[in-house]
Amino acid sequence: QAQLVQSGPEVKKTGASVRVSCKASGYTFSNYGVAWVRRAPGQGLEWLAWISEYKDQTRYSESLQDRISVTPDKGTATVYMELRRLTSGDTAVYSCARVFHDRLTGSYYFDLWGQGTLVTVS
Amino acid sequence: DIQMTQFPSSLSASVGDKVTITCRASQSITTYVNWYQCKPGKAPRPLIQVASILQDGVPARFRGSGSGTLFTLTINGLQLEDFATYYCQHSSFPLTFGGGTKVDLK
After folding, report:
1. What is the DSSP secondary structure assignment for residue A86, as one 8-state letter?
2. What whole-number distance in Å separates Cα of residue A110 and Cα of residue A98?
3. B92 neighbourhood in chain A, CB within 8 Å
């Protein structure tokens, strides 16, 4: 069945970078986009980034756009999220989600989620 | 940017209760709202897209409604498995989430 499997937990120092992977399987990789979302301790969900179905377009949250990158590896159906210049405020569980783009309505919908990756910055 | 304000931030309810969660957008977004259910240690569960369309497998006690700037998620006959945190989301860019509503046991 369709699933997204993320890489394991990370512990990083302030100022470092982190890269989290999200490997898709069980569906056609080019039919869906991928988004990244995080949830910091005691906080709500925060949308971070999106990459399109064909993996040729990206959009980023305005608050993070100078520190975040999302890149694909079509050969392995994997999407990577890199966050640079980490601070303690970036400590969170980072999740990828498959994005269904309804071309009839123009809406985007996160219909499948990865298991989450804890990134701790100290 | 569009802001999504959810209220209440938390509520206490009993099994069998009717629960209503509200999400207000800072400007009109027609029906561009999704709803998700989150439980600790589990991946978020998609519930509703485009304000009112139930995801496959989601029980009919969940109902989404609204358009413009005001949207609601209603749970008719709360079940034990429904105690969770619920988020609305703007379903166009930026894909902003509301602050969440935690539903716990009274």
Report:
1. -
2. 6
3. 106-108
